[in-house]
Amino acid sequence: MHVREFIPRIPGRILNRILPTAMKVPARNANHEWLHHFRPELVVICQAWTDDGLEMMEMCRENGWKYATIVQAASEYQWPDDDISHRLRSAYTDAARAFFVSNHNWRLTEQQIAATISQAEIVWNPVAVDYHRPLPWPDESGGLKLACVGRLQPDAKGQDILLRVLTKERWRRRDLSVTFFGKGVNRKQIEQLAHVLDVQNISFGGFVSSISEIWRKHHALVLPTRKEGMPIVLLEASLCGRPAICNCVAGIPEVLDDGRTGFLSRAPDVDLFDEALERAWQGRNEWCEMGRKAAAKVRSLLPEKPAEAFANRVAQLACAA
Questions:
Q1: Alpha-carbon torsion 298, 112, 186, 70, what sign?
Q2: From start to end of 198-260, where are the E strands?
Q3: Which helix (H) or strand (E) holds 262?
Q4: Which pTM does this prediction carry?
């Protein structure tokens, strides 16, 4: 493992700010000399967004190394400028493979670089729940419990949308509660927003290492997200036999059938999400059966061992001429 490290001492960082470009001290491993010595048969570049690995892709092109890239998320709200788009166009079209976690992300990236990525493929991330056996349905005597699972960051995960929906009087009266699971840079802001809006029927469960434990006690996933790739939390909730109420963004409608395995809001909007949550509430007697259908749907799409399937694909690429 070779980690690209920042310059460790604060005085060194301050000095780097004022030195001319030619005299700046590079971070350790910034030029990836180790990679030149390693002489790879294939470089796999995993990216949170479409352009995170651009410099590495360009380095591979310049050195004649075969490379593949994985895109974990893309968003209509984040478009590259003309220069970056031009560079990405060359980087993606020259890749041995461009892996995406959803068809939506694949097609959106093509639009954003104005080019066809003919060597693209869909890849699935591994999940941390039992693939074969949905969990027993939780007791409903304490009311219906929704879990909002994801990092606490509203610009991506949309927790603010859900909080504003829950301010409506009918949701205050109903025997329904929401627990926010996860951690993130905006937890205090979300808690303060809930306080200002006087939303009472929520709690914060923090980070939970066992995802199955969440679904032993909760009846459905609620995901008001604004931008995604393919939410692992949705795949895991479905495999555990839980329906979901989600926004129709990124790869979500590729695995969730509205009215059959869950409920889709047409866009990340308070009124539209309220409408989807209302439909879910009116159909709450069907949630258990919808959860069973959700598990079957995801198993029809997701390989039993996604990591092994991807590893075999990478090995094939490395060995290909």
A1: positive
A2: 202-206, 220-223, 244-247
A3: strand 262-265
A4: 0.90
Using an 8 Å Cβ cutoff, are 189 and 34 in contact?
Answer: no
pLDDT, position 18 = 75
How deeply is 218 buried, as exposed, middle or buried, from its count of CB atoms within 10 A (0-12, 13-18, 19+)? buried
Contact 225, 249 (CB under 8 A): yes
Query: Which residue pairs from 88-94 have beta carbons closer than 8 angstroms and sit at least 24 positions apart in sequence?
Result: 88/50, 88/51, 88/54, 88/112, 88/113, 89/113, 89/114, 89/115, 90/61, 91/54, 91/57, 91/58, 91/61, 92/57, 92/117, 93/117, 93/118, 94/57, 94/61
Catalogue all structural domains in the chain, each as residue range(s) with its CATH number: 1-30 (no CATH), 32-126+305-319 (3.40.50.2000), 144-301 (3.40.50.2000)
**What's the CA gap between 248 and 259, in Å, rounded?**
13
Helix (H, G, I), strand (E, B) or coil at 228: strand
CA distance 136 to 255: 22
Place of tokens 């699971």: 181
Q: Collect the ranges in the chain with pLDDT lower than 70.
A: 3-14, 16, 21, 25-31
Place of tokens 């980087």: 91
CA atoms of 226 and 267, how far apart (whole Å): 8
Phi, psi dihedrals of residue 116, rounded to the nearest 5°: -85, 130
Q: What is the DSSP string of 26-72?
A: PPTTTT-HHHHHH--S-EEEEESSTTTTHHHHHHHHHHT--EEEEE-
How far apart CA 58 and CA 51 sit, in angstroms, is: 11
Percent of the chain with pLDDT over 70: 93
In degrees, rounded to 5, the angle at the alpha carbon of residue 75 between the alpha carbons of residues 73 and 76 is: 160
Which element (helix H / strand E) includes 11?
Answer: helix 10-18
